[in-house]
Design brief:
Blueprint (H helix, E strand, L loop, with lengths): L10 E7 L5 H12 L9 E7 L8 H9 L13 H4 L7 E4 L17 E4 L11 H23 L3 H4 L2 H6 L6
Parallel strand pairs: 1-2, 1-3, 3-4
């Protein structure tokens, strides 16, 4: 298990789901934007991937990010295979698939802390107005969870139970 006592080295957080089009990409963007200079003084870098990537981020997810002031031009749907060849080690891996929908969460190999923060997939909500609301609601939930992550001290970042407890946060 990773022992995170990092003060100057960034903490790498990988968000995984199946399609890497919505939840994981919003989580990556929020981590990158909020984690540049967290209150704890640590820098967090968000990453995202999917076991079976959809090929592109969901348009409504990008619209939600833009509406909330995030730049989206660098985000893309990608396979977790890209991370197998990277020199960057992940410190925390978060799966965001939805247990209630019987989604199968991918398992990412390596020496990191793995937690599960389930959330319904807003990409599959119909009609359009309901889908836009679902993306807005997911953004709020995700932001609350990311802010809780960023506020943790070094000991909590190394504690799987403390990281898993973030899943209980509701927006």
């Amino acid at each position: 298990m990773t022992n995170i006592t990092i003060e100057t080295t960034p903490i790498n957080v990988l968000f995984l789901c199946t399609g890497n089009s919505a939840r994981s990409i919003l989580s990556e963007a929020l981590t990158n934007d909020l984690g540049k200079a967290s209150k704890s003084g640590r820098r967090f870098i968000g990453w995202s991937a999917g076991s079976h990537p959809s090929g592109q981020p969901h348009a409504d997810g990008l619209i939600e990010l833009q509406k909330r002031g995030h730049h989206t031009e660098f985000y893309r749907s990608k396979s977790w295979d890209e991370f197998a060849d990277m020199d960057t080690e992940m410190d925390i891996v978060v799966t965001v698939c939805d247990n209630a929908a019987n989604e199968v969460c991918p398992v990412f190999p390596g020496h990191h802390i793995t937690v599960h923060w389930p959330a319904p997939d807003p990409a599959h909500v119909e009609p359009l107005a309901a889908r836009q609301t679902a993306f807005s609601n997911f953004y709020d939930l995700c932001r609350a969870r990311i802010e809780a992550l960023l506020a943790m001290d070094a000991a909590q970042l190394s504690d799987r139970k403390a990281l898993q407890a973030i899943a209980d946060i509701q927006a």
